Amino acid sequence: PPLFFFIYTATTFFYTLSLHDALPILSIGNTLDAFEKDIKISDAPEKTETSWGNPVITQELVDAYIAAGLNIIRIPVTWTGHFGGAPDYTIDGAWLRRVREVVDYAYGRGVYVILNLHHEDWNYPYYENEERACIIMTALWSQLAAEFAGYDEHLIFEGQNEPRKIGTSLEWNGGDEEGWEVVNSTNAAFVKAVRQGTEYNKSRYLMIPGYAANCTVGIRHIDIPDDDRIIISVHAYEPYDFALNTEGRSQWQHDTQMIDSLMTELRERFTGKGIPVIIGEFGAMNKDNEADRAEWVEYYIKAASKAGIRCIWWDNGLFEGEGERFGLFDRHTYKCGYPKVLEGIQKGIE
After folding, report:
1. From the candidates 238, 281, 298, 324, which is the catalytic residue?
2. Dihedral pair phi/psi, residue 116, rounded to 5°
3. Residue 281 designated active-site
């Protein structure tokens, strides 16, 4: 029988999706969010898209995800390098057309799409940068809202990815008062820009993060706009030593403490009060430990589901090497590289 995906609001489900036998829910990372400083705005979009080693996204790849039962595709996009200067900050037409083409690969098949701003270099959360960041946030999202105005609730906008003080001691530790306040300010600018748009922008769901999308301190300092269609975005690779630390352990050891604590806090702060949450990035990297990862992901998703939370695997296309090996689907063969992990995802939803 089909599975069903529910995320609750205070009085109703905000969407109900019929699924197939399996449920991979993932991001197509390290593609449209890739960037290189020597690539110019006038360059062809594929020069950016393939700059981190992945092939271009194709309809066939998206169809393979859908055939596997996927019902949400998160499309991270870096806009830095693809828009002009003040005062209009006009997005390059070729880049916007390419992004829309990729969105349509999934949207045209009737699945849900999350579109965001990803590795940006203008939204750093400092008071001295707040005004400029809000201006650019407004300019970019006003253009995107206009471009996708006719797309219904199958398209979700995610205002920004992990806004943080890059390269400082505060980058990943949950931030400080300045960081929290500026992230809240730029989130508010995003929501206002979209809501001032036309058609479905008046009612589509909008995702906002706390500082760095942090799953501990950051989630305690999110100002939620007065809007009943806001989703909280959180990134959580727990436990860190198993899931994200490249030098960490390969055995899960049934270490559930951090997962349980996170889901309890997210339920108490948000979902238990009718505020939806999506863990927009999670996963456990490959350490030649597929069986452990399969058991881990089943537990993780079950714990999240009990808290009314949906999770999106960070698939960056990377299977080997020294980096963060979160690849799940091979983008050349369109096959799942780790069927046990995929099975664990399915079992987690059952």
Report:
1. 281
2. -135, 180
3. yes
Structure tokens at 240: 């860190």
Q: Which H/E stretch holds residue 113?
A: strand 112-116
Between the alpha carbon of residue 219 and those of residues 162, 268, 321, the distances in Å are 12, 12, 32
Choose, from 158, 162, 298, 324, the residue flagged as catalytic: 162
pTM given for the model: 0.93
> What count of Cα atoms within 13 Å lies in the side-chain half-sphere of residue 308?
24
* 210, 166, 190, 78 alpha-carbon torsion, rounded to 10°: -120
> pLDDT digit string (tens) for 99-158?
999 999 999 999 999 999 999 999 999 999 999 999 999 999 999 999 999 999 999 999
Q: Which residue, 323, 311, 255, 309, is CA-closest to 283?
A: 311
158 catalytic? Reply is no
Q: How far apart are CA 137 and CA 13, in angstroms?
A: 29
| CA–CA distances in Å: residue 317 to residues 33, 56, 117 | 13, 11, 19
Residue-wise pLDDT for 9-31, tens only, equals 322 333 333 323 334 478 999 99
> Distance between CA 35 and CA 97 in Å, rounded?
17
Question: Please, which residues bridge with residue 231 across strands?
Answer: 207
> Measured between alpha carbons, how far is 252 from 233 in angstroms, rounded to an integer?
25
Q: Which residues have C-beta within 8 Å of that of residue 336, sequence separation ≥ 6?
A: 24, 68, 328, 329, 330, 342
Q: Using alpha carbons, select from 46, 61, 36 the residue that is nearest to residue 317.
A: 61
Sign of CA dihedral 145, 147, 150, 151: negative
Question: Cα–Cα distance between 302 and 300 in angstroms, integer?
Answer: 6
